[in-house]
Amino acid sequence: MTDEGGALTGEGAALLDELRTTIGKYVVLPNEEALTAVTLWVAATHIQTALQHAPRLAVMSPTKGCGKSRVLDVLYETVHDPMMTVNTSPAVIFRTIGKIPPTLLVDEADTIFSPKASGDSEILRGLLNAGHQRNRPAWRISGPEHKPTPFPTFAMAAIAGIGDLPDTITDRSVVLRMQKRKPGEKVAPFRTRYAAPELNALRDRLAAWLGPLRGTAARMVPQMPVEDRAADTWEPLVIIADLAGEHWPAQARAACLTMTRHEAVQDEQTSLKTRLLRDIHRVFERANNPKALSTQDLVAALIQDADAPWAEHGAKGLNAYHLGNLLRDFDIRPANYRFDQGRQAKAYLRNRFLDAWARHCPDLADTDVKPEPSPGTAPARPTQGKPPSAPAGSLPVGPPGSPAGPKRTL
């Protein structure tokens, strides 16, 4: 039997099964739904010219060593016409994307979108946002006659980095939140010399299967379990699943529902955590920006804000345990600290928040005081018309590097 595109019935399902198994051999993804999504995303790159939307694949990890770069290695050998880049200019990408676009693979995106990145990062973000949908060109003055010229931006892209990517990118992405492997979780060693031939063979079979089906794919309007931008992002993956048939249509829609619901929860938590950073900034500011605030005092100040959600957080309101959990993703933890009169308590050092404020609340950066100078350096002059803050207490108890010792900050 053959389907509308002339492919043998079951051929696509068996090929996707094989691709899914092979991807899972080299990387440990967060869950089975994520493995399904990556498999369908890889296949979708081979029919980009038939798609109306080019979903991004956001590969994010809280720390190094979670396998995000290995995901890109596997993608490089299986997607259509990969273009791997770590630090490239928007101009290069403008001139690379054409009528038959490559698949962009962007590693170390955290360096591109960091607060200290160059102005090109905003141009690149705009390019990645525009390229999610067909017919969103970037106009530039080009050529010896300096004519306005449209440059295509439409191309599928996988973007990997430590920490969160910009919301405008994750909103257009199938999101993989990578974690370190658990004890006992094993993967096959990835060596290009013997892994590439296996993956390349799958790539070539995908191209051969899907090539004759581009016309069919372009006409398909699949039933989606989600709406709006989530439907735009997942539609190419569901189209691939419907072309494959058998168990893949149900499996793809189940993955779509599970992963989009998870991201909705993450968005809510991210908004809550950003609110917490802002409220903590306000608490420090009202206290005249001391070097540290005890955990007890910080929790009490947050709960006392009638306009904030902290009094109703959890079953009995925010406590020290909740606060630690919410701040852990920002790598902010309490430490032993000795205040005036020798009082010692668990406390949060203000310097530990500076990076998180710069990344997630950039509008607050201009109001931040500078970190205290190292011993032996001249103190910074106070701002004109504003008296210097009084010291809040001594350095943390203990030698550097001990659990109670001072943390090194940048």
Write up this protein.
- It is globular and about 80 Å long.
- It has 410 residues and is an alpha/beta fold.
- The strands form three sheets. It has a five-stranded parallel beta sheet with strand order 2-3-6-1-7.
- It has 14 helices and ten strands.
Keywords:
410 residues, alpha/beta, five-stranded parallel β-sheet, three-stranded antiparallel β-sheet, disordered C terminus
Question: What's this model, at a glance?
Answer:
The protein is an alpha/beta fold. The chain contains 14 helices and ten strands. The longest helix has 39 residues, at 248-286.
Name the shape in a single word: globular
Largest sheet: 5 strands, parallel
Q: What is the C-alpha radius of gyration, as a whole number of Å?
A: 25 Å
Strand content: 5-15%
> Which strands sit side by side, in order, in the main sheet?
2-3-6-1-7
Helix content: 40-55%
Q: Would you tell me the structural class of the helices and strands?
A: alpha/beta
Total of helices: 14
Low-confidence segments: 4-8, 369-410
Order of helices and strands: HHEHEHEHHEEEHEHHHHEHHEEH
Distance between the termini: 65 Å
List the helices and strands and how they pair.
Blueprint: H1 11-26, H2 32-44, E1 56-61, H3 68-78, E2 82-85, H4 90-96, E3 103-106, H5 109-112, H6 120-130, E4 138-142, E5 147-151, E6 157-162, H7 167-170, E7 173-177, H8 192-210, H9 214-219, H10 228-244, H11 248-286, E8 292-294, H12 295-304, H13 320-328, E9 335-338, E10 344-349, H14 354-360
Parallel strand pairs: 1-6, 1-7, 2-3, 3-6
Antiparallel strand pairs: 4-5, 8-10, 9-10
Helix pairs in contact: 1-2, 1-8, 2-10, 2-11, 10-11
